[in-house]
Write a structure and sequence with these properties.
- By secondary structure, the protein is α/β, with parallel strands linked by helices.
- It has three domains: 3-196, Lysozyme-like, CATH 3.40.80.10; 213-306, no CATH class; 310-340, no CATH class.
- Helix content is 26%, strand content 22%.
- The protein contains eight helices and 15 strands.
- The protein has helices at 13-17, 41-45, 114-139, 149-154, 175-196, 232-236, 296-301, 319-331; strands spanning 3-6, 25-30, 62-64, 68-71, 90-95, 102-103, 109-110, 146-148, 213-216, 238-244, 246-247, 250-254, 257-267, 273-282, 286-290.
- The longest helix is centred in the middle third of the chain and has 26 residues, at 114-139.
- It is elongated.
């Protein structure tokens, strides 16, 4: 199962530019940097060209190696990876190359041992196919919307690079075979959804929208890494609505994790909606229950008829005293109703 981790390159000028795209395709690259794995690229590229910290204006959405994938830009963020107009509509994915060889002139791999590197190649291939299928699923794409950097050059939408066709043929593979593998994976994901009602694996990176109905997963202990502890009642008693996914037109990152704002809450027992916890929460800590403008009654209907019990906490001759009690209850996370 592919591990997808997220840590946005917030210092990179591409991220700071904040331009958005509607993804229409996926462009597959390979790094041409032997031995540098997916997690290592954050340290290398989370820097500003404008501030003189790096000598390249470059940033891609994700790197993949034989163990995991790292997402460094939001998928709908315009990347700097193609050297051409493909940046305006393509998600860029870099396949990390193994160590043990060097580059000669151009894209010539010197000392590359095909037999020794075969296990690595097959696994990074498999992981990149898996990520590509998930992205296709997320954005309504097919395998036909996937190209390599070199194919992008031939179409006039990318700069003159050889990847991935300087590497794939060494292992007897082509981009057509890559696309065929993605097509097969998409069919498997579709069958999984139809049979099990799931999305083919809980590791899919989440991109939430305003109005989504979510639940904080039970294993989450802090709102985001290094952030406040999550009170038990926030997870156990309420669903939540996302009211904000950006601040100042920029994705919000806390503790290195992309976050969304939970501005409304819905009591699980009564379905009553009220002001939320107004806290930024890491997306990975949330489970999507219903997409956009959620109706809690529909969500509850799926759980079947439920008997509700109410507890009276006091009787007051003065309404002001009743309102003060209701205020204390609400401050503690309980719903309160005054009845005369």
């Amino acid at each position: 199962m592919l591990k997808i981790k997220t840590k946005f390159m917030t210092r990179n000028d591409c991220y700071k530019a904040g331009r958005k795209i509607t993804p229409k395709g996926i462009m597959i690259h390979s790094t041409a940097t032997p031995g540098v794995m997916a997690a290592d690229w954050f340290r290398r590229w989370n820097k500003s060209y404008q501030a003189g910290e790096i000598n390249r204006q470059v940033c891609v959405h994700a790197f993949v190696d034989d163990r995991e994938a790292w997402q460094y830009l939001p998928w709908n963020h315009r990347g700097w990876h193609s050297g051409g107009t493909a940046n305006n509509s393509y998600i860029g994915v870099e396949m990390c190359e193994p160590g043990g060889f060097s580059y000669g002139s151009g894209a010539t791999m010197v000392g590359y041992d095909v037999k020794r590197q075969e296990p690595y190649f097959r696994q990074v291939w498999e992981n990149t196919v898996s990520l590509s299928a998930k992205l296709c699923q997320m954005y309504g794409l097919t395998e036909k919307n996937i190209i390599s950097h070199s194919e992008g050059f031939r179409r006039g939408v990318a700069s003159n690079h050889a990847d991935t066709m300087h590497w794939f043929p060494k292992h007897g593979m082509t981009m057509d075979q890559f696309r065929a593998a993605v097509k097969t994976r998409l069919l498997l994901l579709r069958d999984s959804i139809e049979m099990n009602g799931d999305t083919g694996g809980g590791e899919t990176v989440k991109e939430f929208q305003g109005g989504d109905l979510v639940e904080i997963i039970g294993s989450a202990d802090r709102y985001y890494p290094g952030g406040p502890v999550i009170p038990a009642w926030v997870k156990e008693d309420f669903y939540h609505k996302i009211t904000q996914i950006q601040y100042g037109h920029t994705p919000v990152v806390r503790g290195g994790k992309p976050c969304v704002l939970l501005g409304r809450r819905i009591a699980k027992t009564s379905g009553i909606e009220s002001p939320g916890i107004m806290t930024w929460v890491a997306s990975e800590n949330l489970k999507l229950l219903q997409r956009g403008n959620a109706d809690i009654r529909k969500a509850k209907a799926a759980e079947g008829t439920q008997k509700l019990y109410r507890v009276q906490v006091g009787a007051f001759a003065d309404r002001a005293n009743a309102e003060r009690m209701a205020g204390r209850l609400k401050a503690s996370g309980f719903e309160a109703l005054i009845v005369s």
